[in-house]
Amino acid sequence: MTALALFGGTPAISSDQFEMRWPVVTDDDLADMAAVMRAGAFTSLSAGEKHVASLEREFADYVGTRHAVAVANGTAALHLALAAAGVGRGDEVIVPALSFIATAMAVLHAGAVPIFADIDPRSFNMDPACAASRVTPRTRAILAVHLHGLPADMDALQALGSRHGLALIEDAAQAHGALYRGRAAGALGDAAATSFNVSKNLPACGEGGMITTDDDRIAEAAAMTRQFGERIVAGEPRRYISHALGWNYKFNVLQAAFVRRRLATLKADAADRQRNCERLTRVLAELPGVSPPLVPADCTHAYHFFRLRLDPVAAGVDAEPGPFRRAVARMLGAEGVPIGQYQSRPLSAHPLFQDEASLKKLEIPRAAREHYRRDDHRVTRQVLDNSLTLQRGLLRPDAAGVIDGFAQAFRKVWDHLDEVGRYARSLSPRKRSTSASMA
Ligand SMILES: *Cc1c(COP(=O)(O)O)cnc(C)c1O
Fold first, then answer.
1. Taking CB atoms and a 6 Å cutoff, what residues make up the pocket around ligand 1?
2. Report field, pTM of the whole predicted structure over 0.90
3. Closest ligand 1 atom to 147 CA
């Protein structure tokens, strides 16, 4: 048996063995960028510019909504989607405790108060029962995140929203390619926001975002507020009249051209990604103590992240979950697997929501702070304590070789579980109460 790389053995994967760069940039992309520069239409309002409006049409067709409104980034898209759906000062918006911080920040940008609900331990998405327990007379909307690319439990959230007259907004930033009962993420609520950040499954060559909706009024409000509250009419000159408070959230033309090229192959790329990740799931399911992502029968996972849960008891290792996770992460890292831990704490545990002065400045009412407690969101903390994430390499449609490499490395580490256990026990056990939030 070859020695573990962490202890001086040869790594299972060498650093130059696979192409892991993301996004994939082709010569055709470069030629297209040059053409945009030469044409000289640099903003979405420049005469003759067509990429932004074309992307909006094509993206709406892809998602299956009547409207798509392009903006500067995903956080701006969330902000405008919430505001256009009527969320404003003093309103409460229920968000999952596990997400990227932008989910909660966009609620603050809209002047509202994020209320954190715990997640389901297997889907990692918002637990509808917990969300239901957080509804108050001030609740205005539910912001459902399709975390890691798995659609949230939209039927349950829709039912909850209808019961209380709440808007249901999707954060689909991680869900390009995800389907819920055959319908695309982004077409499942009153409005959705998504991101084309360069790290996402549908990347720009930098930043970008989109709001999708069937609602004419939401689309119109979003289109106005992305640009100084102006009404822009296609084919007519800009009049520079502001009807409402707006922002400058216009989308960049070069980015739009790049996203259009990626969108043309998104369906095929998503299918490849799904096939690759399902193969990784089959490999990892054979290892005791590893649970690959759950995919309910009515969902298509977009695999923006591949989160695997680790159970030392099932692996036959005498160690606590946290140290076991850290030991496995270090050993896989040494073998050449780009393993990570997406998010280290619940959103509510960021200093932004813990620091007294910060809460005061944000004008978070006392009652809302009930859901900002450090010891709340138990499932989220448990998940963060006992799971790891893979992403790099897996986003590429041509990741089949990468998967073979990952499989080799995992099997090698699992052949050395005795050593993993010893190493885990040697890692200083953190205090139980802080282990989840501090890692
Ligand atoms: C990336 C991301 C965002 C923010 O998108 P940006 O384009 O980076 O502003 C929001 N929510 C989630 C879940 C994300 O992953």
1. 73-75, 99-100, 102-103, 145, 171, 173-174, 195, 197, 207, 209
2. yes
3. 13
